[in-house]
Design goal:
This is O-methyltransferase C-terminal domain-containing protein. InterPro entries: COMT-like, COMT_C, SAM-dependent_MTases_sf. One of its GO terms (biological process) is methylation. The protein is α/β, with parallel strands linked by helices. The chain has helices at about 25-30, 40-55, 60-65, 80-85, 90, 100-115, 145-155, 165-180, 185-190, 220-235, 285-295; strands spanning about 1-5, 10, 135-140, 160-165, 190-195, 210-215, 240-245. The strands form two sheets. A five-stranded parallel sheet has the order 5-4-3-6-7. Strands 1-2 form a two-stranded antiparallel sheet.
């Protein structure tokens, strides 16, 4: 923002992205609806200024306390200290309390806004979806409100999509979005919305693809293994697993990356010299997201951790 006259400010091109587009009188009259029907960018900014910054204020306490410094548990994080709660971030935002119900809704609107910062067709480039036989089932595990699945449904009409998430997300977030954006896909059965806990046995046994988009970074290794194990047990011999997530690169050359991991996309592409291998400041959002996840969802102080 910039000041056009004493105590009078206006938005510039950057700050205008944070504007909900709603009149001040409406925001005062109905503050709980502030982020409804917006781009979501103001919502994700508010989430960071609220829960994330409160958690950041307790980062040192988590790092220095022997009881939590090496913890892999998602209810022993700076978030728990900063917000004074005993449950994990995911269990907390679904509490039947107006304070958290508002923040859950804001968070999911914000995630949609954050997703809008990437190219709309990014998910289409993750895999050759049109190579799947007609009627193939794609399961979007932990799919949230189903933003990427919406792109798939609009561009690859011959596949069937199952979006799975918690009951609250499905009823309050996913269902309204799809009823508004692509109701015919729900009516025809081409898209199914399913409440499911991905730590429990996967109910879809005939999936062609299990999609995990921005899921694995939220969980420490032992919980990530539990998620993947449930999918492995439900998979057919020809089922594909597609993980869309951020791979955190080193700032220096990684010799182990020369050999590859046998998995396409598992090794980050390094920048050519004399640039830093991680592209320097250009890649700062990846590291910012990494530290945010540590503060909010799981925290450990190890040599391979985000902080340590």
């Amino acid at each position: 923002m910039f000041e056009v006259s004493p105590d009078v400010f206006t938005n510039n091109r950057v700050s205008s992205m944070m504007d909900t587009g709603k009149a001040v009188k409406d925001l005062i009259a109905r503050p709980e609806e502030k982020h409804e029907n917006t781009t979501g960018l103001a919502a994700i900014a508010s989430h960071h200024l609220d829960e994330v910054y409160k958690a950041a204020g307790c980062l040192w306490e988590s790092m220095s306390d022997p009881a939590t410094a090496h913890s892999f548990e998602s209810n022993e994080t700076p978030f728990n200290l900063g917000l004074n709660v005993k449950t994990s971030f995911w269990d907390t935002i679904v509490l039947p309390d107006p304070y958290w119900q508002y923040r859950q809704r804001r968070f999911h609107i914000g995630i949609k806004g954050a997703g809008s910062l990437e190219p709309a067709d990014a998910i289409l480039k993750a895999f050759d979806w049109r190579s799947l036989p007609k009627g193939s089932i794609v399961v979007d595990v932990g799919g949230g409100i189903g933003g990427p699945a919406l792109v798939l449904a609009r561009n690859v009409p011959d596949i069937k999509i199952v979006i799975q998430d918690t009951p609250t997300v499905i009823s309050e977030g996913t269902t309204p979005l799809w009823a508004r954006e692509l109701p015919e896909a729900l009516a025809s059965g081409r898209v199914t919305l399913q409440a499911h806990d991905f730590f429990t046995p996967q109910p879809i046994k005939n999936a062609s693809v299990f999609l995990l988009k921005q899921i694995m970074h939220d969980w420490p290794d032992k919980y990530a293994i539990k998620i993947l194990s449930q999918l492995r047990q439900a998979a057919r011999p020809d089922t594909r697993l597609i993980i869309v997530d951020s791979a955190i690169p080193f700032a220096c050359h990684d010799p182990s990356g020369d050999k590859g991991k046998g998995v396409v996309g598992a090794v980050p592409k390094e920048a050519p010299e004399p640039l830093l291998a991680n592209y320097g400041v250009t890649n700062e959002m990846t590291y910012f997201a990494d530290v945010t996840v540590c503060k909010m969802k799981h925290f450990k102080l190890e040599k391979d951790s985000c902080i340590g």
